[in-house]
Amino acid sequence: MSNPTDRTETTALVRQSLHKRYAAEKRFRAYGIIAILASLGFLVILLASIIAKGTPAFTQTFVKLDVQLDAETLGISDSPSVDELRGANFNGVIRQTLRDQFPDVDGRKEKRDLYQLVSTGAEYKLFDRVEADPSLIGTTLNLWVPADDELGAVIKNGDDLTRPDDIVTRMSDAQIGWAKQLQDNGQLEVRFNSTFFENGDSREPELAGIRAALAGSAFTLLITFCLSFPVAVAAAIYLEEFAPVNRWTDIVEVNINNLAAVPSIVYGLLGLAVFINFMHLPRSAPIVGGIVLSLMTLPTIIISSRAALKAVPPSIREAARGLGASDLQVVTHHVLPLAMPGILTGTIIGLAQALGETAPLLMIGMVAFIVDIPQTVTDAATVLPVQVYLWADSPERAFVEKTSAAIMVLLAFLVAMNAVAVLLRKHFERRW
Question: Which residues contact 34 (CB under 8 A, 6 or more apart)?
Fold first, then answer.
């Protein structure tokens, strides 16, 4: 018969052990919650910083000028041809308008400072208006032109132009005084920056846009999808459904898994050596970028496609074969449709990864300064991540907000692509 004292001591030891175990579990759960909260906190800080810096890039400051379209100042005839208009001195007309508004400005340096209040794109804005309606020649035109990036930043920040010493800018006190006069006359206005979505790259921050980069990214992703999706899905079907289990297929599977871990810049070196130097494909073109990114994306899609095929229950295959279906019919009519949600999800995730890649594209020359919008897959182009890289290296303050705004657009595309992956999975998913 056991001693009651021994039973009491044993019970106490068990309770003490349980108490320690429960305490350890609570601590582990608390550590997990703290880790999640810390991760979310860092993510919120990062996104808040990007949004705070990038939001001003979606607005732009404009200056209203009363432009006297004098044919003599333009250096053209009263009824000019299109070629004559293209050679007209529109920049001289803009400068003359500024001199007329500030007649006290004298000296070369002061005039140069005055001209810097408006963007160099003002003459192109004026040219577009006159080209669309040549009858404006000889009249006075009320024209809103983009302000210089420094003036634009000061106005968008809401700085007090009456206190130039408190403004952090490269503008001189005289330029701030002229800007104050323009503001008092109602000649300064902040509008939505459509230029950011309509223009290509530019050395002037107020004229730079992401349209060329967006077109380049679209062409590159199109080539990537067209090359990687059919090849990866076909390889996954063969390896999972038809390939015999032997040393050769084991080597192939190991290499596919290893290729998924290869640094992306290695694919860029491969593209530079094979597709540009050996095959002489056009440098800095979406077709080369798409081929390189498709090679990088292939392992990801193959692995996810094989996992989706493996998740289809064997009973589906057995039932199809029992009804007399061939192996190919089993795969195409039964297995592949059921695995398609997982395949599409893996494909979109792989394309989202390709969309954010920079290193391999730098190696094949897609770091070029691209102003014109690419029209085909062989035109010189850049992509959005490379555009972010280029702007981040620019010293002008306005390029900082452009960089953050481009990152916001890139993140929006990535979120959209992942959302599409979730929707496709929900739409095609079948339960059994």
Answer: none
* 61 φψ region: left (φ > 0), alpha (ψ -120 to 50), beta (else): beta
Model pLDDT, residue 324: 87
The structure's pTM equals 0.86
Segment 143-153 mean pLDDT: 91
Q: Assign 266 to helix, strand or coil.
A: helix
Rounded Cα gap, residues 380 and 361, in angstroms: 12
Nearest to 283 by CA among 272, 294, 296: 272
Element (H, E) at 145: strand 140-146
CA distance 417 to 338: 21
The count of other CB atoms within 10 Å of the CB of residue 356 is 14
Tokens in use for 251? 């080597």
Instruction: Please enumerate in sequence order all residues whose Cβ is within 8 A of that of 395, keeping only pairs 6 or more positions apart, or say none.
Output: none
Instruction: Find tokens 């250096």 and name the residue.
Output: 75
* CB neighbour list of residue 342: distance below 8 Å, 6 or more residues apart: 304, 305, 307, 308, 311, 425
Q: What is the pLDDT of residue 407?
A: 93
Query: Residue 286 is which amino acid?
Result: P
- CA atoms within 13 A of residue 270's CA, in its CB half-sphere: 14
Q: Which of 294, 235, 284, 234 is nearest to 264 (CA)?
A: 294
Mean pLDDT of 86-96: 89
Q: Does the structure show a pLDDT above 60 at 405?
A: yes
Calculate what percentage of the chain has a pLDDT beyond 90. Answer: 42
Q: At what angle do helices 286-310 and 247-259 cross, to 10 degrees?
A: 120
Distance CA 320, CA 335 (A): 10
Largest Cα–Cα separation, the chain: 124
Tell me which residue of 341, 322, 320, 342 sits closest to 331, measured CA to CA: 320
